[in-house]
Design goal:
Distance between the termini: 33 Å
Number of helices: 5
Radius of gyration: 15 Å
Structural class: mainly alpha
Strand content: 5-15%
Largest sheet: 2 strands, antiparallel
Number of strands: 2
Oligomer: single chain
Strand order of the largest sheet: 1-2
């Protein structure tokens, strides 16, 4: 069971679909099932190592230790990131809403 969904282009600066429509392939796992973390780990390595040539990227809403420190990948897949950072800085100059997740992802 591998759900596939198609998402149209989005105007949101931090949408993976900002530059055009995308196809998502979900790899569901159940919390607590033996081997689930290994499945996610192998899937994420595959996406980063193999599917990058096809502009594939891990969805950052998933647990993904491979993407947290790869700001270069985030920057290459989110071309409006610099604009988003400027807007965020204007709206939140003291970083009150700058979360731990955002910091890990280089946002």
């Amino acid at each position: 069971h591998l759900p596939v969904r198609f998402v149209p282009q989005s105007k949101a600066y931090l949408s993976q679909c900002h530059t055009g429509s995308k196809m998502y392939i979900d790899v569901p796992t159940l919390d607590g099932v033996h081997g689930a973390e290994q499945v996610l780990d192998r899937n994420q390595k595959f996406v980063l190592d193999t599917l990058r040539e096809y502009n594939g990227i891990i969805h950052w809403g998933k647990v993904n230790y491979h993407l947290y420190s790869r700001h270069d990948i985030i920057e290459s897949h989110y071309p409006m990131l610099p604009v988003w950072k400027r807007v965020r800085e204007q709206l939140d100059p003291i970083g009150m809403f700058h979360s731990y997740f955002a910091k890990k992802m280089g946002l």
